[in-house]
Amino acid sequence: MAYLFTSESVSEGHPDKVCDRVSDTVLDLFLAAEPEARVACETFATTNRVIIGGEVRASKGKLPGILESIEGAVRGAVADIGYEQEKFHHAHFEFQNYLHEQSTDIAMGVDSGDNKDEGAGDQGLMFGYACRETDVLMPAAIHYSHQVLKRLAEIRKADADSILGPDSKSQITLAYDDQGRPTGAHKIVLSTQHDEAASQSDIRKLVTPVIADILPDGWMVGADDLLVNPTGNFVIGGPDGDAGLTGRKIIVDTYGGAAPHGGGAFSGKDPTKVDRSAAYAARYLAKNVVAAGLAEKCTIQLAYAIGVAEPVSIYADTHGTGTVADSHLEQALTASMRLTPRSIREHLGLNKPIYAASAAYGHFGRMAGEAGPGSFSWEATDLADTLAAAV
Length: 391
What we know:
391 residues; alpha+beta; 4-stranded mixed sheet; 34% helix
């Protein structure tokens, strides 16, 4: 063993993920009604209360209908997550909506005109990453952390009498060899909300075979290295146990700390916001570089200025694993895909109501189309041949 590396995931019932789901549900409502709508929706959730606010823009003829449908959609999202607790119930929490019209200053920079392409909605830098640690070209620790919680949510939702609650967290520490390859799990932490009558032993008995089934053969840890609900009790969960905010799980959403992060959150933002769309484009490019056999792992950085269409910089790093020089790869990337905000949206088909499904279990490492037509389009590897030819 050369080193250890750890990543965590949180479930759809985690307070911050409840907020991400609400914000993306609002975004999907706007895009379903008007693909060119503008949305920046933030959510705050606490005991028996959900509050949304932010900036939106849609046609005056459609805006009233969208606004009227928001509360029902939000309650439906919370119901789908599974919250029917006394102090956080989808039918009973107090809902407040403080969305308002988008700033005209921002609109002026973002909108296209007769003599200019549509500009980026803000300055910023975004990273994409891919590697061969898993078949979905994601770092292993974050990938398996997601998969454990996703499987437990499926088990919980399939059983009306399940002892599991919606709120949970996983954390997986992997051992790596001196070639940077993961060789097995070292420690696993699983904390899950549960029924008051359930014992720690009951929970361990339920989750242990799930974790073992998710991990590759031979990777499962022994009982002493599997920490299940280490505090001893986790009955009170979700926004009743801890307040939630949109955008507080950006490392969970991306690469689990295995790659850099530009700092911008995704949920609640329409795809004119390069925090979201350019991060998706960077992942798409990095994944296609690896899928094309041009590198074993690849990091892509894009950077933008508000109101300016073309990125101000493009950077590629294949970490010494590339088959061509990184500078040649950068040229191939720009030749293979235009990276203005509008071009990204058109290439990846982002002006669709596809975002609520991305609010939990990672925005990356998913199957293109897994949540319906057009979903997770940035996970496709359809650019691999083009990139290979361009270098």
